[in-house]
Here is the input.
Amino acid sequence: MEVRIHQGTITLVQGDITEEETDAIVNAANSRLMGGAGVDGAIHRAGGPSIMAECRKIGGCPAGQAVITTGGNLKARYVIHTVGPVYQGGTKGEAELLRSAYLSSLRLASSHGLKSIAFPAISTGVYSYPLAEAARIALKTAIDYMQEHGDIEKIRFCLFDRRAYETFAEELRGLQGDR
Ligand code: ADP
Here is the structure.
């Protein structure tokens, strides 16, 4: 599914983010930047040790913020590592932290002159964020950013399974209706 926003496009695809050819792919990292399960493990496996070497030098990243490293052996030139919130019922500022994780990643892409970026569904795996709510926050943040900034031309959401893809598609149709 693809929608035009201002001068850019937002695209939803089902697949493995390590195969994306955008300028940067985003990693749903943990705050120690030490790798782990899920998309984080997949990115380090596919990208090779140069990514972890830079993560070690950076040392860590609080929830809601983002850092950038090389893309190593990936097709993407950069990996932007952001840390989403662990979902604890929704009353611990999770929504704002999730929005901030997407926004910090987009700002970092802009400040590096990047034109395209691919996101996974941050916090919806091990961190247990409810999928529909997470999708709405992700898409709304991306749409607002594209409307306010002309520099990023392509934002892709690379959803790993059918359920995540369908949920993002439904939320995107809903947000389109609101515009
Ligand atoms: P978090 O700790 O932020 O919840 P996870 O990696 O556990 O991060 O999950 C985030 C999302 O990434 C989940 O929806 C999961 O299905 C998805 N995911 C796992 N591996 C990949 C991959 N290779 N490409 C894209 N998405 C992936």
